[in-house]
Amino acid sequence: MSAPRLFLPKRWALVAVAVLLVISAYAVVSAVHRAQEFEVPVDSYQVGGDPGFLVARVEVHPDFEVVRTNADDQGDRVVLHVVARQPTLWWSGGDHAETRWVRVRLGNPLRDRQVVDSVTGNLVPRG
Fold it and tell me: Which of 8, 40, 79, 85 could pair with 35 in a Cys bridge, judged by C-beta atoms 3.0 to 4.6 Å apart?
């Protein structure tokens, strides 16, 4: 009497599983190394010569990068959003910050509308 045959998957199935494991590992590693984005409070703003823009003052660590700015028109007010990205997920830099002025495109000219910070919900002073 012969011993029972063990089921051995075909080579292509093993290759497919190996490829899926490599892709999954790459996705996890890249997600872990991807920098974290967050909104930064706006301290003040200035209006320049172009009515379609304003310049917002923010304070962020020197290693951070401002990646996105926008303004939400909400009737009699404009809500400013400034998004920064830290270098890596495990970044553990110091506590000091630097002041940066970033341009924010407005949907409509500011005129006499109020400017509001999206993080705090407070009015942003002009200056």
Answer: 85
